[in-house]
Design a protein that fits this description.
- The protein folds into 5 domains: 1-40; 41-176, no CATH class; 248-455, 2-Layer Sandwich (Nucleotidyltransferase, domain 5), CATH 3.30.420; 473-555, Orthogonal Bundle (DNA polymerase, domain 1); 592-658, no CATH class.
- Helix content is 44%, strand content 7%.
- The protein has 29 helices and 9 strands.
- A hairpin with a 3-residue loop joins strand 6 (306-313) and strand 7.
- The longest helix is centred in the N-terminal third of the chain and has 26 residues, at 93-118.
- The chain is globular, with a radius of gyration of 36 Å.
């Protein structure tokens, strides 16, 4: 081997000998980039500067180079082939920025993971494998085009290039053709904001206060809004009193012996998708003293969303419940969930509590929320991923939160991720419980109290906010005229109405960046509406005529409002005390407050110290005749005034007051 080859082999990267030299050079380049970006023209100068053709061509060339560099970096990191932009001029910048932010989050997570490995805080990824998604050209309607590929995350560049053959992928055919599960729901989906949500519970086990009779018989009655007016108790929380009455016993307030969790591979688990398997699971969990529970929810193809999977773990077994198949069978779990002798451990249960009510009529009594415990201990992080990493050295793959949990059968990687959410939670519960007692026993009681408040939350349907479109507008940093704002408001209302009608999310009907694009451009033709959307959402295509009619109506709004006649309200001043009036008593103190109310004599003097010479004859004579001619001598000889009608003002009194 030549000396030249030997020297090149000792280089860290290209011409850099070690990490420090590479870091110093990279930081200097980044700082130079930041300074240059700060020197760029402001938004109000940009349009003017871009009117110069040479500058515009130069900027377009630089933009293309930046785009190519971004695509190369993402491709090199196996995050994305490219950003899906053929030309910078054709880019939908709002959409691409959102996707770029997601990619940056993944890169930062990798950097943090690599730093942990370098400092010895984390095992090498070759020993502990984790899965991250490699997203492919995901448009706004992601489940109508390509899905995503899940690949092994190995920090080494050479290892990344040599992907293992057992990588997991979901192509778009699997996610595109998933039928909507809510079509098969026996309980009708009701998105009407005028009709409130009525609890689904019909039998109330472990009750202290019995269930209202009308609620238990509601199935046999046709729904009538007048029924709610006559029986408002139907809308109350069925287990509010039971939750309020619960107090943790002495055993729950003592330190416990921490029970280590076995690995996933060493733990038995059951996928519950039949009534027989459900009974097998119930026979096991009803004799436990504590359970860990979590839910996987889907909200993209539904207005209110629905629960797709429920995870329940005991100390020895894991259960994954197919809530789409057993949706009508799960109300039997109230026997266990409302049992005050069984601790139900959740993490961040705020949404889970509401989803259990909405989908299954399930309620929780005696809950311990590990998220609230982490906050009470003031830990550096409150997320489940942080707790898994800190206490179990488990790297939770947050990217599965974006997965479509409607898929059946669920892939093995999905099942493994779902099990991790509850499998280690009881072990974490033991550690947090002991830490709370060690820090202050009162903290443990506080966590139980906060958990009770969460359990008492009552699900309510999402209501329509007439002014919510303003939040989208303010975040966009765009400047709209009156027509564009009217279009944004009308299209926002149309989107919400269609989403409720079709039981789709507003993001599926029309994403925010497309909503802003249409409102800003106000296309004259239907084809222009399509041009604002790439790709065109399905429900936009189906309702293209309605959208076009909204835009045409908005375009008829005048850009400048006709000025309204300005009416000057008559000037009103507080009554003033005249010490020279013979009707006043020298010992009368009832007017002292009136003197105190006048806080700015100069401003009042400025209003009235203008030339009123042209109206002296008319006003003074008229006012003096109405009086008992007692104050005629009080009028000053000279008053500088302005020709301004001031009705019902006693000029002689006011000027006397100013001259005192």
């Amino acid at each position: 081997m030549s000396s030249e080859e030997t020297s090149s082999s000792n280089l860290f990267l290209n011409e850099f000998s070690d990490v420090s030299s590479y870091k110093d050079t990279a930081c200097s380049i980044v700082m130079k980039l930041i300074r240059s970006s700060n020197d760029l023209s402001r938004a109000n100068d940009h349009d003017f500067l871009m009117s110069f053709a040479p500058l515009r061509r130069r900027m377009d060339t630089i933009a293309e180079k930046v785009l190519q560099s971004m695509n190369s970096l993402l491709k090199q990191q196996n995050l994305r082939r490219d950003l899906g932009i053929v030309s910078w001029k054709e880019a939908d910048h709002d959409d691409k920025i959102e996707k770029l932010i997601d990619m940056n989050d993944i890169l930062f997570e990798r950097i943090s993971s690599s730093l942990d490995e370098a400092t010895g805080l984390k095992k090498l990824s070759s020993e502990v494998k984790s899965l991250v998604p490699s997203i492919r050209n995901v448009p706004a309607t992601w489940n109508k085009t390509d899905g995503f590929v899940l690949q092994e995350n190995i920090p080494s560049l050479k290892q990344q290039q040599k992907r293992s053959s057992n990588t997991f992928s979901i192509n778009h055919q699997q996610t595109k053709n998933i039928p909507k599960p809510q079509i098969k729901f026996t309980d009708k989906v009701d998105n009407n904001p005028q009709i409130p949500f009525i609890p689904k519970i019909r039998i109330k086990p472990n009750a202290i206060v019995p269930l209202p009779i009308m609620l238990s018989q509601l199935d046999s009655r046709s729904f009538d809004t007048l029924l709610l007016e006559r029986h408002p108790e139907l809308l109350l929380h069925p287990y509010f009193d039971e939750i309020e009455a619960f107090e943790p016993n002495e055993n729950l307030l003592k330190e416990v012996k921490v029970q280590l969790s076995k690995s996933l591979d060493e733990t038995k688990y059951l996928f519950v998708d039949t009534p027989d398997k459900l009974k097998t699971m119930i026979d096991h969990i009803e004799i436990q003293s504590e359970l860990a529970i979590d839910l996987e929810h889907h909200s993209y193809r539904s207005y209110q969303g629905f629960t797709c999977l429920m995870q329940i773990s005991s100390r020895t077994e894991d259960f994954l419940i197919d809530t789409l198949t057993l949706r009508d069978e799960l109300n039997i779990l109230n026997n266990i969930f409302t049992n005050p002798n069984i601790v139900k451990v959740f993490h961040g249960a705020d949404s889970d509590i509401e989803w259990l009510q909405k989908d299954f009529g399930l309620y929780i009594v005696n809950m311990f929320d590990t998220h609230q415990a982490a906050r009470e201990l003031n830990l550096p992080g409150f997320s489940l991923a942080y707790l898994l990493k800190s206490y179990c050295d488990i790297d939770a793959n947050k990217q599965f939160q974006l997965a479509d949990w409607r898929i059946r059968p669920l892939p093995e990687e999905y099942l493994r991720y779902a099990r991790e959410d509850t499998h280690y939670l009881l072990y974490i519960y033991d550690l947090l419980r002991n830490s709370l007692i060690e820090k202050n026993p009162q903290f443990l009681k506080t966590v139980y109290e906060k958990s009770k408040i969460i359990c008492q939350k009552l699900y309510k349907k999402p209501y329509f906010d007439d002014n919510a479109y303003q939040n989208i507008y303010s975040k966009s940093r765009k400047t709209f005229n009156i027509r564009q704002l009217a279009a944004l408001k009308s299209l926002y209302y149309w989107r919400d109405r269609i989403a409720r009608q079709e039981d789709e999310s507003t993001g599926f009907v029309l994403p925010n960046h497309m909503l802003l694009q249409i409102s800003e451009i106000l296309p004259r033709e239907p084809q222009g509406v399509r041009a604002c959307c790439n790709p065109v959402p399905l429900l936009v295509q189906h309702n293209l005529h309605d959208i076009h009619q909204i835009i045409l109506q908005v375009r008829d709004i005048p850009l400048i409002e006709e000025p309204k006649e300005q009416q000057i309200a008559p000037l009103t001043l507080p009554a003033l005390y005249d010490p020279e009036n013979v009707l006043n008593c020298p010992h009368d103190t009832s007017h002292q407050v009136e003197h105190q109310q006048i806080t700015n004599i100069n401003s009042m003097k400025k209003i009235l110290s203008n030339d009123l010479s042209s109206i002296l004859d008319e006003t003074f004579i008229e006012e003096s005749n109405k009086r008992d001619k007692l104050n005629d001598s009080l009028l000053p000889i000279q008053i500088k005034t302005q020709l301004l009608p001031v009705p019902n003002i006693r000029l002689h009194k006011l000027t006397n007051f100013f001259d005192m």
